[in-house]
Amino acid sequence: MKQVELDKLDQRILAVLQQDGRISNQQLAEQIGLSPAACWRRVRTLEETGVITGYSAQLAPERIGQGLCVLVNLSLQRHTIDSTAEIEQQVSSYPEVLQCFAVTGNADFVLRVIVPDMASYDRFLNEKIFTLQGIAQVNSNFSLREIKNTQTIPVGSVE
Q1: Which of 22, 61, 69, 84 is the most exposed place for a label (fewest CB within 10 A)?
Q2: Which segments constitute the HTH asnC-type domain (predicted)?
Q3: pTM for the complete prediction?
Q4: Are the C-beta atoms of residues 152 and 18 closer than 8 Å to each other?
Q5: What are the phi and psi torsion angles at 83 (to 5°)?
Q6: Cβ contacts of 135 within 8 Å, gap of 6 or more
Q7: Distance between CA atoms of 66 and 115, rounded to whole angstroms?
Q8: How far apart are CA 107 and CA 48, in angstroms?
Q9: Domains within the chain, CATH numbers bracketed
């Protein structure tokens, strides 16, 4: 996918929206130093070009009974396009999997899984992960505490 060129105003818009996606266009325009119409056009262009992919609420997992975070390393028996695609499709369909990365190193995939407790994670492994065809090894790393968790992407040298 082609990289989009961002000027300083676009970078400032993105920085503000990453901190407060619910800010009004009027407030955003005032912070950036643009007219509301010009600000709206820029935000719309950032959305249409795929720079902004959506807006969402950030939740505290432990406050809604989803307090166990597990980083799961999956290693495959074989590396074929079909088997890898099937695993990617299956894993992507599991609501417990918040993130899935194809990686290099000691594993082929790293999953970030959120579940209520250890019994739920045991069920997730037995009913979902262990039923996948082609998995050679599963290693689980349990999060003791969260140090940093952000979706904010640095966008140039924003003042």
Answers
A1: 22
A2: 6-67
A3: 0.87
A4: yes
A5: -70, -40
A6: 74, 75, 76, 77, 87, 129
A7: 5
A8: 36
A9: 8-48 (1.10.10.10), 61-142 (3.30.70.920)
